[in-house]
Amino acid sequence: MVNIGLNLFKHELTPAEVVKKSREDRFLAREIIDGIFTDFVELHGDRLSGDDMSVIGGIAALNGTPVTVIAIDKGIDIHDKLSKRNGSPEPWGYRKAQRLMQQANKFHRPIITFINTPGAFPGKTAEAQGQGEAIATSILESMKLTVPMIAIIYGEGGSGGALALATSDQVWMFQNATYSILSPEGFASILWKDSKRADEAAAVMGLTPKDLLAKKVIEYVIPESRSHTRVFNLMRKRLDDEFKQLNALSPQDLIKQRRARFRAF
Amino acid sequence: MDLYNNQKSTSKIKRDASVNDRIPDGLFLACPYCGVQMYNKQLGAFRVCDHCGYGFRLQARERVELLTDSFEEMDSEIEMMNPDFPGYADKLARAKSQTELGESVLTGVAKIEGEKVALGIMDSYFMMGSLGSMTGEKITRLFEYATENFLPVVLFTASGGARMQEGINSLMQMAKVSAVVAAHQEAGLLYLVVLTDPTTGGVTASFAMQGDITLAEPHALIGFAGARVIESTIHEKLPKDFQRAETLMTNGFVDQIVPRSELNQVIAKIVKLHHVTEV
Ligand SMILES: [Zn+2]
């Protein structure tokens, strides 16, 4: 294992090092949910075809205020990881998220999504059941929700599979997270026909929080610490502050601002 | 904000550089779908295999000719600000001269069998129809124009997916276009998608799957993940027609499969049925 932590704040990691770290199980979805919120009630199923375990969803309280929480989870042990395909949602995972987003909209609850995925699952059933349509609809419906939404990428932010849950008012990233169009391996194999040049690809892809902050793809980088409690306390405070500001906007202005955020690209 | 400063060029379409014109009639071709061999001239004006009905890939300007009574192009001069990825500027320049397009989509206002529509046609010959930020910008402006002017949008999709050279900006186009699709939808206007061969990746995972009505050309390849990626994930071969239009229709993602020669009539009929009647 890599010696985590010692140099974390001493020198800046290379993009390839950030990629490596983003794939380690530094934070787990349930740990984040329990660390930030109280009274989490998990809700299952998309009401159409099934329940995708890689997407954990439910309602909870943020400093006493009801919110909807949706988190992509990679799993803990090998069995858990296999059943969650290492955090690659099926179409019914995205449809479960859509259902919970609509529910949040009905009850005027802010939405927080936590993202850690190499990408949407490229399986046979996933394809037959409309993985493309599921992501497309998640993005489109997110553009219409009249409640504030903040997306937090805490590990890998892989392509459309991440964007499906990151079409929000703000996007935040953990210090050692990535967000990209494709994995560096995939990028290298498509552009240079050599997946072994992944480190080189990572360097030119601009996938680190620092790069993405400069491009205004994200609004905030969450500093990591060995004390997870410290990280969660910081996030709880900041979420609370940002939702207070976003809640002050009229639904029309909120939607206008969200759409303008993406119109700028 | 210069959202509506569409540099409209009224140039009529010349069809001198089309792939079609460069292939001699006597040339022998194999249908990419059924494999049957035929002379180029057997494909006819619509470039359709007379054995299986597959429509050979068209350039956007060829499709305009086949489909529309008139076409007024928008945003023909749109320019990428700084294509700074190594080799990207050269690739773009080559694609532009090969296709006579500014980007991988051609947009404008068209009449199809007398029906006025905002029309977008993606071109798989322009960097494989990949979704660059100017591709997204042109489609976004098309929707904005349509919403302002109460027009339906008809969009022909053809794409190999993301524009790798643009990285995260390519991904953001999926959300950018979705935002204007939402506004167009809220105005009660029709968005008609025609899926053509091939429609894959990020385009499938966004505006190709957001239409009110979705048509497809026969045997068009339509999918999210690439077939080889799926096969290496599940460790088995996919059935022959797994990502073809007919399978998508069986699975509930396509309304109708329409032969190329009938597309203009079917589109006009659907658009007509969405005319707002004064009560
Ligand atoms: Zn054929």
Automatic annotation (TrEMBL), chain A:
One annotated Gene Ontology cellular component of this protein: acetyl-CoA carboxylase complex
Pathway noted in the entry: Lipid metabolism; malonyl-CoA biosynthesis; malonyl-CoA from acetyl-CoA: step 1/1
PROSITE patterns recorded: COA_CT_CTER
Keyword Heme applies: no
EC number, as in UniProt: 2.1.3.15
InterPro entries in UniProt: Acetyl_CoA_COase_a_su (IPR001095), ClpP/crotonase-like_dom_sf (IPR029045), COA_CT_C (IPR011763)
Record has Lipid biosynthesis as a keyword: yes
Catalytic activity: N(6)-carboxybiotinyl-L-lysyl-[protein] + acetyl-CoA = N(6)-biotinyl-L-lysyl-[protein] + malonyl-CoA
Molecular function terms from GO: acetyl-CoA carboxylase activity; ATP binding; carboxyl- or carbamoyltransferase activity
Enzyme class: transferase
Keyword list, A-Z: ATP-binding, Fatty acid biosynthesis, Fatty acid metabolism, Lipid biosynthesis, Lipid metabolism, Nucleotide-binding, Transferase
Any single biological process term in GO: fatty acid biosynthetic process
Domain CoA carboxyltransferase C-terminal, residue spans: 11-245
Domain of life: Bacteria
NCBIfam families according to UniProt: AccA_sub
PANTHER family, per database record: ACETYL-COENZYME A CARBOXYLASE CARBOXYL TRANSFERASE SUBUNIT ALPHA, ACETYL-COENZYME A CARBOXYLASE CARBOXYL TRANSFERASE SUBUNIT ALPHA, CHLOROPLASTIC
This protein's name: acetyl-CoA carboxytransferase
Organism: Leuconostoc gelidum subsp. gelidum
Organism taxonomic ancestry: Bacteria, Bacillati, Bacillota, Bacilli, Lactobacillales
TrEMBL record, chain B:
Complexes and interactors: Acetyl-CoA carboxylase is a heterohexamer composed of biotin carboxyl carrier protein (AccB), biotin carboxylase (AccC) and two subunits each of ACCase subunit alpha (AccA) and ACCase subunit beta (AccD).
Naturally occurring in which organism (per UniProt): Leuconostoc gasicomitatum
The enzyme's E.C. designation: 2.1.3.15
Domain of life where this protein originates: Bacteria
One GO-annotated biological process of the protein: malonyl-CoA biosynthetic process
Family: Belongs to the AccD/PCCB family.
Domain CoA carboxyltransferase N-terminal: 27-279
Cofactor binding note from Swiss-Prot or TrEMBL: Binds 1 zinc ion per subunit.
Protein purpose: Component of the acetyl coenzyme A carboxylase (ACC) complex. Biotin carboxylase (BC) catalyzes the carboxylation of biotin on its carrier protein (BCCP) and then the CO(2) group is transferred by the transcarboxylase to acetyl-CoA to form malonyl-CoA.
InterPro entries hit by this protein: AcCoA_carboxyl_beta, Acetyl_CoA_COase_Trfase_b_su, ClpP/crotonase-like_dom_sf, COA_CT_N
Sites where the protein binds Zn(2+): C31, C34, C49, C52
Keywords per UniProt: ATP-binding, Cytoplasm, Fatty acid biosynthesis, Fatty acid metabolism, Ligase, Lipid biosynthesis, Lipid metabolism, Metal-binding, Nucleotide-binding, Transferase, Zinc, Zinc-finger
Coiled coil: none
HAMAP family: AcetylCoA_CT_beta (MF_01395)
Major enzyme class: transferase
Cofactor(s) for this UniProt protein: Zn(2+)
GO molecular function, one term: ATP binding
Main location: cytoplasm
Protein name, per record: Acetyl-coenzyme A carboxylase carboxyl transferase subunit beta
Localization: Cytoplasm
Catalytic reactions on record: N(6)-carboxybiotinyl-L-lysyl-[protein] + acetyl-CoA = N(6)-biotinyl-L-lysyl-[protein] + malonyl-CoA
CC terms in the record's Gene Ontology section: acetyl-CoA carboxylase complex
Pathway(s) the chain acts in: Lipid metabolism; malonyl-CoA biosynthesis; malonyl-CoA from acetyl-CoA: step 1/1
Matching Pfam families: Carboxyl_trans
